């Protein structure tokens, strides 16, 4: 025998939902009394309050082990990399001498980049240091903050300083300046107390043909470096971090390419020659070096 379920009308369904939400006979709200709801809310209040307190305590304990000025772990930054300015996509410096727009963007970037190196700003904010020695500023038990930085004046960049330069860093004449800077590593004594400098060569990656590598060296032509011989002085080290070294300006090396073969892409590699900076790690092309492409288009 089949028992048929009673079919409820729409009005009955609505009345049942109303009674579920609020039952005036038992004074229950959604199936629970006020006391039951109070216990539930109290439980979750205590539960989530405990989780919040435990999380806050954990974060506080962890932050006590972290310095505001020096990263706790920097083992992956033992070898500083090099980078070029103007900063371009894929590190390609392409100049069309007859097209002002092709190189004006580089000039604007360099103007902004070199502004903190103006002699007047350096004289106002930084110290005149003794060359050939590290500029150490130990705390000696008392926080020595902020650290002073050594002056690196824009005029040290010679023909690449851009000061009163009608050639716009050489970009308008097809003799562009490219600036090499070494990435900052906190408390790193670059050079191991020995002199260091930057050198550049025309050089293709190892997987390229040897003939192409020789062509790059020929097409690169002559160039001059500022400061002389691409030297980087020890007095700009060590670097104590952004919060400690508030006015620190990195030392630069400017390379002015004088007669690059026009309308040819030239592969250039610049590297730092320092006793404690390895530059032969083929897995990291930026470890102590930088490779970029240079092309001067002339019509």
Distance between the termini: 101 Å
CATH architecture of the largest domain: Sandwich
Q: What is the subunit arrangement here?
A: single chain
Number of strands: 11
Strand order of the main beta sheet, please?
A: 4-11-10-6-8
Please report the first level of CATH classification, the CATH class of the largest domain. Answer: Mainly Beta
Structural class assignment: alpha+beta
CATH superfamily of the largest domain: Na, k-atpase alpha subunit
3D shape: elongated
- In sequence order, what are the helices and strands, one letter per element? HEEHEEHHEEHEEEEE
Number of separate helices: 5
Helix content range = 25-40%
Q: Which regions have little confidence, pLDDT < 50, spanning 5+ residues?
A: none
- CATH domain topology of the largest domain: Immunoglobulin-like
> How many domains, in number, for the residues?
2
Largest sheet: 5 strands, mixed
Mean pLDDT: 87
| Strand portion | 15-25%
**Mind telling me the C-alpha Rg?**
33 Å
Transmembrane segments: 37-63
Family: Belongs to the X(+)/potassium ATPases subunit beta family.
InterPro entries: Na/K_ATPase_sub_beta, Na/K_ATPase_sub_beta_sf
Organism: Panthera pardus
């Amino acid at each position: 025998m089949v028992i048929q379920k009673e079919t409820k009308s729409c009005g009955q369904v609505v009345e049942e939902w109303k009674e579920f939400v609020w039952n005036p006979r038992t004074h229950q709200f959604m199936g629970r009394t006020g006391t039951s709801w109070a216990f539930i809310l109290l439980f979750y209040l205590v539960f989530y309050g405990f989780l919040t307190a435990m999380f806050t305590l954990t974060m506080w304990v962890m932050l006590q082990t972290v310095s505001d000025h020096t990263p706790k772990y920097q083992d992956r930054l033992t070898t500083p990399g090099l980078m070029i300015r103007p900063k371009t996509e894929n590190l390609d410096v392409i100049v069309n001498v007859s097209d002002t727009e092709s190189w004006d963007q580089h000039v604007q970037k360099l103007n902004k980049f070199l502004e903190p190196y103006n002699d007047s700003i350096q004289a106002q904010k930084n110290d005149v240091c003794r060359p050939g020695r590290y500029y150490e500023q130990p705390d000696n038990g008392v926080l020595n903050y902020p650290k002073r930085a050594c002056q690196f004046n824009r005029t040290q960049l010679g023909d690449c300083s851009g000061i009163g330069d009608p050639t716009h860093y050489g970009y308008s004449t097809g003799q562009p300046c490219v600036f090499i800077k070494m990435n900052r590593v906190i408390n790193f004594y670059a050079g191991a107390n020995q002199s260091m400098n930057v050198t550049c060569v025309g050089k293709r990656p190892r997987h390229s043909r040897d003939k192409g590598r020789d062509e790059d060296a020929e097409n690169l032509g002559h160039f001059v470096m500022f400061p002389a011989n691409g030297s980087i002085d020890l007095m700009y080290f060590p670097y104590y971090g952004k919060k400690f070294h508030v006015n620190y300006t990195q030392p630069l090396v400017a390379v002015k390419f004088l007669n690059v073969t026009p309308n040819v892409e030239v592969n250039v590699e610049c590297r730092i020659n320092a006793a404690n900076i390895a530059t032969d790690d083929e897995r990291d092309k930026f470890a102590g070096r930088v490779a970029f492409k240079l092309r001067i288009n002339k019509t």
